Amino acid sequence: MTRVPHLSARLQGFGTTVFAEMSALAVATGSINLGQGFPDTPGPAEVLDVARAAIGTPYDQYPPGPGHPVLREAIAAHVQRFRGLGYDPADEVLVTAGATEALTAALLALLEPGDEVVLFEPMYDSYAAAVAMAGGVLRPVPLYPPPAGDGGGRWTFDPAELAAAVTPRAKLLLLNTPHNPTGKVFTRAELAAVADLAQGADLLVLTDEVYEHLVFAGSEHLSIATLPGMRERTLVVGSGGKTFSTTGWKIGWVCGPAPLVTAVRTAKQFLTFVNGGPFQPAIAAGLGLPDAYFTGLAADLGRRRDLLVAGLAAAGLPVVSPESTYFATVDVRPVQPDGDGMAFCRSLPARAGVVAVPMVVFYDPADASLGRHLVRFAFCKRDEVLTEAVERLGRMSP
Ligand SMILES: Cc1ncc(COP(=O)(O)O)c(C=O)c1O
Q1: How many CB atoms lie within 10 A of CB 310?
Q2: Residue 16 pLDDT
Q3: What CATH number is attached to the domain comprising 14?
Q4: Are residues 97 and 241 in the same domain?
Q5: How much distance in Å is there from the Cα of 289 to the middle of ligand 1?
Q6: Which domain holds residue 128?
Q7: What ligand 1 atom has the least distance to the C-alpha of 239?
Q8: Tens digits of per-residue pLDDT, 11-50?
Q9: For residue 326, how far is its CA from the centre of ligand 1 (angstroms)?
Q10: 148 pLDDT above the threshold of 90
Q11: Alpha carbon nearest to ligand 1 atom 9, residue
């Protein structure tokens, strides 16, 4: 690997992301960008209107360090309503600059150099960098796609591999359900196995649940914090970005027992201190929307999932139909005989006028072979955009 000048040893290997490269390629070639996961339609008016009205008021100034009380109360009420978990808005809820800051602040606050973090891979790309910044060590456990031809199957893991990843240096288990990039929703049995291990080895659990409301018919999101004995060792991370189609607002949060949240707040106050004043009451309004909003969001996205998944299959790309999130995973080998997903993505704009991202970037370099042939497409786009993308993929040149 070429060393990046000036960059600390901790961050070598975390150069420019492939998202930047692929998005630039989309612009340069006029391709449809199904790489990055952001919606191309506005969020609910009830949310946007509150933000507009808050600009020009005292909400423009620094919010209180833990977040505006109206938002902390709305987060606590929302977690109670959907997960049945009670958190005290005074000291068990912290508003952050997106889920990303919640995760990074938690890792900086909780890890000593050399502490190990057990997590599943493929993994969301900020995890490895945040663990590295905190001086921690990754212990990745593979998730395996269903066998070829089983597009309705689920990604799974080997419990023995999970157990083997927990060494005496393990401090924290970083979970992500619903899971990006696979679209997997961990089942109760899987979470129970993870919980047993965490309790047996006395691990803290940091669970990233930003896709909690983007779960399709037949699957159900469950938070590991609701399992017996888990609330006291778990930090639950959420975000308004996906739920209200406001990914640029970066309003996230973390809930957990007061001593853990206090530790995260200590790190967080020196990262951003606070952010997004006028967006905080807006996300509070969103969290209080009736159930129909949340079920409607998932149903609408599920329909778009079906549209893209059918199109990918018709284009000769074996695809696993995701249970959740914005993303579908394909195996490129039938159309890219060398099985190189990165090369496939670099050539896809020319071959079809579409951009996707290679899944290899979501794996530890040591495990790159597991994700080499996999590519992720996003379906959080308007119907006409997806329809056009599917038509283009159907005409893909060899
Ligand atoms: C799994 C996962 N966690 C966290 C984030 C980032 O959330 P936020 O924009 O709230 O920082 C994303 C965004 O794509 C994600 O996919």
Answers
A1: 13
A2: 76
A3: 3.90.1150.10
A4: yes
A5: 22
A6: 51-290
A7: 10
A8: 998 877 888 899 999 999 999 999 989 999 999 999 999 9
A9: 11
A10: no
A11: 98
The domain boundary residue, chosen from 264, 290, 316: 290
Does 241 contact ligand 1 (Cβ within 6 A)? Answer: yes
Q: Is the pTM of this model over 0.85?
A: yes
365 and 246 both lie in a single domain: no
Cα(239) to ligand 1 centroid in Å equals: 7
In terms of Cβ atoms closer than 10 Å to its own Cβ (0-12, 13-18, 19+), residue 1 is exposed
Question: How many angstroms does the Cα of residue 100 sit away from the middle of ligand 1?
Answer: 6
The token pair at 352 is 């079809």
**Distance between CA atoms of residues 241 and 211, nearest Å:** 9
Q: Is the CB of 378 under 6 A from ligand 1?
A: no
Judge if the beta carbon of residue 98 lies within 6 A of ligand 1: yes
- Ligand 1 atom nearest to CA at 325: 16
Residues 126, 13: one domain? no
Task: Please indicate, yes or no, if residue 166 is contained in any of the structural domains.
Answer: yes
Q: Distance between CA 280 and CA 138 in Å, rounded?
A: 33
Structural domain total, the chain? 2
Atom 14 in ligand 1: residue holding the nearest Cα:
37
Residue ending a domain, choose from 262, 290, 318: 290
Distance (angstroms) between ligand 1 centre and the Cα of 175 equals: 13
Ligand 1 contacts CB of residue 252 (under 6 A): yes
Q: What is the mean pLDDT of the chain?
A: 96
Ligand 1 within 6 A of CB of 247: yes
Return the pLDDT at 1.
63
Asked whether residue 340 is assigned to any structural domain, the reply reads yes
pLDDT at 120: 98
Mark whether 212 and 92 lie in a shared domain: yes
